[in-house]
Design brief:
- The protein has 2 domains: about 150 residues, Alpha/beta knot (3-Layer(aba) Sandwich), CATH 3.40.1280; about 70 residues, Orthogonal Bundle (Trp Operon Repressor, Chain A).
- It is built from 8 helices and 11 strands.
- Strands 2-1-6-5-7 form a 5-stranded parallel sheet, sandwiched between helices.
- Strand 10 and strand 11 form a beta hairpin.
- Helix 3 packs across helix 5.
- The chain is elongated, with a radius of gyration of 22 Å.
Length: about 260
Amino acid sequence: MIFDVITIFPGFFESFLIHGLFKRAIEKGIVTVNVIDLRDFTDDRHRTVDDRPFGGGPGMVLKPEPLFRAVESLRDAAQRPDFPVVLLSPQGRLLQQPVVAALAGREHVILICGRYEGVDERVVTGLATDEISIGDYILSGGELAAAVVMEAVTRMLPGALGNEESPQQDSFSGLAAGVGPGANGATAGMLDCPHFTRPAEFRGMRVPEVLLSGNHQEIAEWRRRQALAKTRARRPDLIRAGSLSETDLTVPGGRLIRQED
């Protein structure tokens, strides 16, 4: 997977790329990240990338010329005009696991980090192939959003985590591919189950006995039920009509989760 990140603050990504998941993925050759300075594609001595908006109003807007030049240069270098050009923007579609899974299936993605008041609308309509938001809130720029997208996508690439089961057990992991009990009792498309480690008792709080039993079938069932109960309590919107069996719809305490709940 190749990520090309277009930004006016290339130094932002220096620390992000040399730690943890990304450090390992880059060393293994699973991921390549090219950070591109947008100012390299300007044509004036001040390296201007923004200007005031037509019609007045607060803030500055990223100009179209440098962004078009940057993307076209990357496409020409790769000799491929068809890979996704993603604009990180609060006006984009919400980043959810199906979106992550779709991006993970591509070989090359360009990420444009917005700034200031936004980008010239001609970038949205004439250059970007997708517009993604990481949530309903405003950041000063798209660099953090680009980092979130790359992290989420890289976790799904084979070998990136070193444990092939881990991504499938994450919260939301089955939203793109259906639902049902998964590895270790995880329920695809739901929130993750609770996790515990040593010590077995801490400040009067004990680990559930079933997790200490060694009975893997009972542990898997407990995890599945806990995941479903947590999802119903915190994110009932994830429970899709017709997507769960009668067994899946039964939560601890014997209450059936009705589709209308």
